[in-house]
């Protein structure tokens, strides 16, 4: 999808006339695919990524790594089943140009990789990418020995003058605006001469499951990582210098992208099964099981996958989504159909995502008849209106009857 079509392509939202009953296979995780690509590109030997997500963000990541010399062949896997990408690491080089689009993972995970290239790597992207925070990555890399030209903006566009290696070592970073600053430094950390020790200083870090995902995937690739959870200091992550293994990685389904299908079961009183739902995962989407159960459904994890059943009655929730912010859009939409009020908290940083997600959700849901108010750190959604807004006036009732269901 190009940036212009992303804003102009309209498609008719499906309408359920009865309770849904479906099995929906969701595509691979974007976060796992893009971490997998980076780790495979930095490995000492070739590797495979099976069932990768093919999306704008992942294609941009693959193209960017190719521009720096990495071989990425798209095809079917070693056993002939399903899509698989072969990643063949190579000595990284500039000059290269990277289009980050509006992908947080590309704009944040790749500048550290570019410090390991021989030569300049220029980063540019969609207009919105210039507004998304990147200072944490730029300042940290400079403190670790990198040369970066950014016209003192602390944002895109920028050029990383790769020197083929980076000293690395300890660095302090305020990652309260995005957990991706921490993930970015950790992912390339094994390839820095002294590894890296990242100390977060500042307000609470969002999206901790995504940092756990980074740590888990680094460990699977053979890196040694010390974390607050493994007995280290709070808010400090340490990666030792080491070679990385080439892995044969099967990408989990994107559980956050299961949200609209689980929501369909919840609001229509139907049933949806998502195959291959992992028993253990670092994906934040796993939290949907608890959140949508609190909102009135029930779920069961079996060999067939996750089966979620709704009753058609939706209960409002008061939830702190700081750790699982990317689930907010669907939860907010479901909350607009609830019998009681909802408050979604801890998600001020969503104003800095692909768009200002809090403003966009309030505007779009309210245009469809909801009652959402932005708060300082999230949004509040009133209970669903039981009747059309007819003001007790029969002529307004005729207007409401003719209103479009959606745009
Ligand atoms: O590292 C990742 O893959 C992500 C981290 C989170 O970013 P923030 O910490 O910026 O919210 C999340 O919201 C985003 O959808 C994906
Ligand atoms: C915020 C997201 O993506 P990113 O920050 O990686 O662009 C997302 O996918 O919800």
TrEMBL record:
<protein>
    <recommendedName>
        <fullName>3-phosphoshikimate 1-carboxyvinyltransferase</fullName>
        <ecNumber>2.5.1.19</ecNumber>
    </recommendedName>
</protein>
<comment type="similarity">
    <text>Belongs to the EPSP synthase family.</text>
</comment>
<dbReference type="InterPro" id="IPR013792">
    <property type="entry name" value="RNA3'P_cycl/enolpyr_Trfase_a/b"/>
</dbReference>
<dbReference type="GO" id="GO:0008652">
    <property type="term" value="P:amino acid biosynthetic process"/>
</dbReference>
<keyword id="KW-0028">Amino-acid biosynthesis</keyword>
<feature type="region of interest" description="Disordered">
    <location>
        <begin position="374"/>
        <end position="407"/>
    </location>
</feature>
<keyword id="KW-0057">Aromatic amino acid biosynthesis</keyword>
<feature type="domain" description="Enolpyruvate transferase">
    <location>
        <begin position="18"/>
        <end position="400"/>
    </location>
</feature>
<dbReference type="GO" id="GO:0003866">
    <property type="term" value="F:3-phosphoshikimate 1-carboxyvinyltransferase activity"/>
</dbReference>
<dbReference type="GO" id="GO:0009423">
    <property type="term" value="P:chorismate biosynthetic process"/>
</dbReference>
<comment type="pathway">
    <text>Metabolic intermediate biosynthesis; chorismate biosynthesis; chorismate from D-erythrose 4-phosphate and phosphoenolpyruvate: step 6/7.</text>
</comment>
<dbReference type="Pfam" id="PF00275">
    <property type="entry name" value="EPSP_synthase"/>
</dbReference>
<dbReference type="InterPro" id="IPR006264">
    <property type="entry name" value="EPSP_synthase"/>
</dbReference>
<dbReference type="InterPro" id="IPR001986">
    <property type="entry name" value="Enolpyruvate_Tfrase_dom"/>
</dbReference>
<dbReference type="InterPro" id="IPR036968">
    <property type="entry name" value="Enolpyruvate_Tfrase_sf"/>
</dbReference>
<dbReference type="InterPro" id="IPR023193">
    <property type="entry name" value="EPSP_synthase_CS"/>
</dbReference>
<dbReference type="GO" id="GO:0009073">
    <property type="term" value="P:aromatic amino acid family biosynthetic process"/>
</dbReference>
<keyword id="KW-0808">Transferase</keyword>
